[in-house]
Specification:
globular; single chain; zinc; NAD(P)-bd_dom_sf; 6-stranded parallel sheet; zinc ion binding; 7-stranded mixed sheet; oxidoreductase activity
């Protein structure tokens, strides 16, 4: 019996976006779930900086189609023999694992421990905008920075979110406000400033200028928490100056330069990385925490506390539209999230 096929979008060569072979459509084998895998019928996907970074030009040539995409909303088609959290027909959303093929395909395999129930109040497109950014923002705030989820414990505490208008920042603002923090967001353009204010930022400063003088102008000398979502090395000295004694800085952006950690010493300040693929890549003992946090995000969405962050929707899911979505991200001026729906 011949192997059933499915549509997928991916690459063999790592090329500039203006080359039509940078992302192509192909027919590949439809996978079969094993162990704790779910086979998902993909309804909508979203793009993230990780997609454009992995697709960026280099000499490598893949023998098999390399499928990207780490934001999916869809329906459980089939479950592996060890699954206990989901059943066929369940509507789900998730980001997946960077160690496995991405979700830019008609069907996709994912471990159930990193999957959440789709928010009931959202369609698939709006749900697909959330997983990667929500996991990153949640882990950055609550697991890495150690922000308390109880608002009564965060009275008079402040967080500076650098690059707040993008996908992760759009969720982080809302989660930080829900946790009771005073939020200072950075933005540099009228449309991004308006966006972060709409999401609940209390103050907006410009990330092209030093932070401390701008903080002083709004009545504060420092902040207890900093979440850096843009150019860690560029903002490093400014962050070190703005962080409060015993404060915490978390970044999601890798750096090509060495960071001078000594700048934090006299303040006994903490620096920590957040990478939302850590749990799935290493299959950590607490990997299932992503299942729980996505379910909590879905609850917050359905309660009207968290708003989805879609700013552009493309239909259908094909190579041309995916190249267009990558181009929007590569412009470096993205506000919110770009999603694609329907194969």
């Amino acid at each position: 019996m011949s192997q059933e096929k499915m549509k997928a979008i991916g690459l063999y060569k790592y090329l500039p976006l203006d080359d039509p072979e940078s992302l192509i459509e192909a027919e590949i084998d439809k996978p079969t779930p094993v162990n704790r895998d779910l086979l998902i019928k993909v309804k909508a996907i979203s793009v993230n900086p990780v997609d454009t970074k992995l697709r960026s030009p280099k000499a490598t040539v893949e023998k098999q189609l390399k499928v990207l995409g780490w934001d999916v909303a869809g329906v459980v088609e089939e479950v592996g023999p060890e699954c206990s959290l989901f059943k066929p027909g369940d509507e789900v959303f998730y980001a997946g694992s960077i160690k496995r093929p991405g979700g830019n395909s008609e069907f996709h395999l994912v471990d159930e421990r990193i999957v959440g129930k789709k928010p009931a109040n959202l369609d698939f497109a709006h749900a697909a905008a959330l997983p990667l950014t929500a996991i990153t923002a949640w882990e950055g705030l609550f697991d890495r920075l150690g922000v308390n989820t109880d608002p009564s414990k965060n009275i008079n505490k402040r967080i500076l979110i650098i690059g707040a208008a993008g996908g992760v920042g759009s969720i982080a603002i809302q989660l930080a406000k829900h946790a009771g923090l005073e939020v200072i967001a950075t933005a540099s353009r009228p449309e991004s400033t308006e966006w972060v204010k709409k999401l609940g930022a209390d103050h907006v400063i410009n990330h092209y200028n030093a932070f401390t003088p701008q903080l002083v102008n709004i009545g504060m000398t420092n902040v207890e928490y900093i979440l850096c979502l843009n150019s860690t090395e560029k903002h490093w000295s400014s962050m070190a100056e703005a962080i409060a004694p015993q404060g915490k800085i978390c970044s999601i952006v890798e750096t090509d330069e060495e960071l001078n950690l000594t700048l934090l010493k006299n303040k006994s300040a903490t620096f920590v990385w957040e990478f939302m693929f850590t749990r799935s890549s290493y299959e950590t003992d607490d990997m299932i925490e992503q299942h729980y946090l996505l379910n909590e995000v879905a609850r917050l969405v359905d309660s009207g506390i968290i708003l989805t962050t879609v700013t552009e929707k493309l239909t259908p899911i094909n190579a041309g539209n995916l190249r267009k979505a990558h181009a929007i991200l590569e412009s470096g001026r993205t506000v919110g999230k770009v999603v694609l729906e329907q194969f």
